[in-house]
Amino acid sequence: MYSIFFSMKFISETTQAFLAGLLEGDGYLGPVQLKLRLQDKDIVEYVAYLLETHILTIPPQRRNNKVLYETSLGRQLERETLYMDLYRWFGDRRRSQIRDTFWGYPKIFFDQPVKIELEQLPQIGEQPSAYTPSAEEWAYFSGYFLAEGWISFDCRNKQLQSYNRPSLHLSSTDQDVIAYCAKLTATSYRKVGRMTAKNKRVFVLKITNFEKLQDIFKNILPFISVSARHTTKVGKAIQEINKRIEAQRTSSRQKNIRLNLQKELETFEPKNAPNVDWEELASIFQEHKFLYFVDVPGIYGIAKNVRLQIKSQDFQIVEKVAQVFGNKVKVSQRAKKTNQLIYTTQLEKKKYVFWILKNVAPFLSGDSLVQVEKALNFFKSDKLTAVVKYPESSSEGKDGHDQTPDSSL
After folding, report:
1. Helix (H, G, I), strand (E, B), or coil: what is residue 389?
2. What CATH number does the domain located at 116-267 have?
3. 120, 174, 383, 397, 400 from 117: Cα distances, Å
4. Looking at domain 269-408, what is its CATH homologous superfamily?
5. How far apart are CA 101 and CA 94, in angstroms?
6. Fold of the 1-115 domain
């Protein structure tokens, strides 16, 4: 269905809905003129093209203000026809303004079904049912988003996730319009505590669900393409969502890797394993600090691991442990007081560390047992293969420098 606006262009139902959403948010529907004033010149140019009107540039009134662009329609027959064609899309406040414009007309003149009636829409805090908007409804939402919406990005967990979390916001003093947008997006809205300068309540719709945002952006992108600024913002949000999808895929792969590794840990038995006296090894562990959590730098970030390490001036003790570890004995340093050599041996291979800890645990007690139980729980948790990404401003650890134990379990 198409409407003819006298000497103006033919405007489709979908474009009418888009125009209604835009005017709902930022329009002036007066008895003499219809006006739209925005900082986005390209949006105003598009509306001026539709209405066949001119554009006025309004210089900043103050230093921090921006240049505004305005277009207005004063031709009475065309303006009044446009009002009536858009009437069913408007909320209660805008419909009232239009009725005031047609003062003296009989009520039956406005007796047509309307889209926005608060009584038939979700109330504050109510979760709307699932809903599939039509193309015209997406067009209306798009226009309203250009007027009253914005997108924000949560960057607080940058070290823990590879993407910034986008959110879409709508804010208005018109509860019925926000409720209608809540219906279209199947998202609840709320009332904020603050009031406007004119002592009006403010209602806010915030959409953070990734699946909903994907659907919204896909459907509004064709309509908001008239605005370069908003198109860029939505494009960035889509990129962040795609990063999140890739992160989920990576996480799924990491989970499979972790589960396979944990299965291998439980069944691992070294080939040609030494005949270990676990009770004797436990007695050595009881007398020495032997277990550490260490940070292991890698290509993509820092991972946690468990290191077994013994230091002692008694070479024979360290040699016994080294035989179990399958490693050599090294000279670590000299004791400050006695100037005697301190020997050390260590092990970080996950399978071997887990194998040793699970076998020595039954012979440990006290703090040593607590340390080993924490380590075994680490091997069984999702932290086993977790990686914390490097801060963007730092490359520390990427060069593979020697890792120093950051905490003892």
Report:
1. coil
2. 3.10.28.10
3. 6, 11, 51, 60, 64
4. Homing endonucleases (3.10.28.10)
5. 11
6. Endonuclease I-creI (3.10.28)
Walking along the chain (409 residues) 10 residues at a time, the average pLDDT comes out as 51 95 96 95 96 94 89 93 94 94 77 93 96 97 97 73 86 97 97 90 95 96 96 94 79 72 85 85 93 85 90 93 91 84 92 93 94 93 80 47 37
Quote the radius of gyration of the chain (alpha carbons, Å).
Answer: 34
* Tokens of residue 223, six digits: 């309509």
d(CA 388, CA 370): 26
Q: What is the pTM of this model?
A: 0.64
Rounded-to-integer distance, Cα 271 and Cα 175, Å: 72
Torsion of CA 244, 250, 253, 254, to 10 degrees: -110
Question: Structural domain boundaries of the chain?
Answer: 1-115, 116-267, 269-408
| pLDDT per position as a tens digit, 110-137 | 888 999 999 999 999 999 999 999 999 9
* Residue where the block lists tokens 């039509």: 134
- CB of 166 within 8 A of CB of 153? yes
Instruction: Please give the DSSP secondary-structure letter assigned to residue 126.
Output: -
